[in-house]
Amino acid sequence: MIKIQKLSDLTPTLGFSEFDFYSDYRSSFSSSELGRLWSSIPFSSLAASLGLRDHPLGRSSYFSAEGKLALMFLKAYTGLSDSRLIADLNSNIHYQLFCGIRIHPLTPLRNFKIVSQIRCEIASLLDIDSLEQILASYWKPYMENLSVLMTDATCYESHLRYPTYIKLLWEAVYWLHTHMCAIYKEQGLRKPRTKYDKQALRYRSYSKNRNPRKSHRRILQRSLLHLLNKLIGLTDQVLFNVHPDKNFTKRYAVIKQVYHQQRMFFEGKKVKHQIVSIDKSYIRPIVRGKETKAVEFGAKVNTIQVDGINFIEHLSFEAFNEGIRLVECVNKQQRLFHYRVKQIGADSIYATNKNRKFCSSRKIATSFVRKGKAGKLEEQAKAMRSILSKERATRMEGSFGTEKNFYSLRKIKARTKQTEILWIFFGIHTANAVRMIPKMNSCKMKDTA
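^ that's the sequence the OP posted. Answer follows.
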């Protein structure tokens, strides 16, 4: 039996507080960076907004509603895997204080899957706009320069192998052949003859070739398309006598869609909503045009930054043009902080005529390159544009690199679309909470001075 107690339930039962050695840990926790991180996050308000609460019926949860959120922030902060996070939680009292629990050292928590269960529970309730409104209201008293808005887009890549037509076709063939054989065996039918073994040898030989010729690739692609079409037909013949589960039905529908898309690619036609992974059928190729990485695979996020703190303006797994979302960025900032935007720093892709007219009508200074004749205060305007451009290029793009390198957003290892969105949310706002620590400390020092 795992002896885990919530601090809220345990503290009133302590009869002799002077013998409570946890008091030393609590005092050291409040002065540590982890304790300051905990104080910079409004856990109770976030839990109430999500609707997380302890249910009176059934077995009580190990973690309180606030503790579940704290565990997600702790995972993003440490960058540990689920199993390693639970192992460190058992031995690190500061981690336990952060999550609001106590774990007996002789009966540690062993079920590391509890992290993924909590992640799925919160992902099903996640509402980014309402949670960011709570965070912005909590952080606003400690922030400055609320009239300056920075905006840019980035891609948070998913953890998947680099997709090619041959890999995708072979994965579809392998999965469907395995399940088709199982269905025929279950029905007591003779397994139909296919050229699966021959194509398996050809694919193995092709995958070992570092520089395959285009003609070889076309030949193998045609063969795999023909084999996949035959497997789909053979599977359809016996499915009316079988009641497959939801996972099989969903995966089988994706494989059919993959076949039709790959057939169109082979014939030289364009395809919309291209599937690049059977496991993650929601992932799309995002063309970024970078020198080292022309295409990325993951979620594209249009972000606004106010005083160094990032907020998600728009998140999509489909490619979109962030340049047309400047008006939405301004509206997002004003909803969060109720403060009029006076200056905007943005990339050249945002400098459309529509956005220029919008900024001129609102008397908003921008970092866009001037069009037309110079005004009377051209030198001051030029200096302003230079400062805004430099601030956006260094501070905002630097924050993207920090989130990807130190908050588990370089390659997101989520399994579903909902949990991947949650992973991005907690990674971004854990980095924000760390940035808020010095801001909150400086304000407290001013108040005490």
